[in-house]
Specification:
It is a single chain. By secondary structure, the chain is of the alpha+beta class. It has a domain at 75-115. It contains one helix and five strands, in the order H-E-E-E-E-E. The chain has one helix at 5-23, and strands spanning 75-76, 84-88, 91-96, 99-106, 109-115. It has a five-stranded antiparallel β-sheet, with no helix packed on it. The protein is rod-shaped and about 150 Å long. The termini are far apart.
Length: 118
């Protein structure tokens, strides 16, 4: 195998340069490192909505007193509000303001009829 002249020159230079490299300072510059500030992350608390406690206010019940005088013989399916139950001579009567009523049985239940005062 023949010696190649370039290989011999490379080996000779390496032999001569070895003592110089051993004493030489090797300066390696690192690539600059830049530090970006960390992003600020703000975690807001989950909103909590508190509804006020429900307050039930019953409607004001104003006692209704009938001030209208109905003709005798007028029939009602229910008693008006504010009627007082009375028993006169063993008979049930209801006084509703200026009107007097008596219950009677009709085809669909109890009805109330305006009667003259007892």
């Amino acid at each position: 195998m023949r010696n190649h002249p370039r290989v011999a020159v490379t080996i000779a230079l390496a032999a001569l340069a070895a003592p110089l490299i051993a004493r030489a300072w090797v300066v390696v510059r690192a690539a600059p490192v830049y530090y970006a500030p960390r992003p600020v992350v703000v975690v807001a608390p989950v909103p909590v909505y508190v509804a006020p406690a429900p307050a039930y206010v019953a409607p004001q019940q104003v006692p209704t007193v009938l001030t209208t005088s109905f003709p005798v013989g007028t029939n009602f399916m229910t008693l008006p509000q504010g009627c007082n139950a009375l028993t006169i001579h063993g008979q049930p009567y209801y006084q509703c303001g200026v009107n007097w009523m008596r219950p009677f049985q009709g085809p669909n239940g109890t009805y109330f009829s305006v009667v003259p005062p007892p």
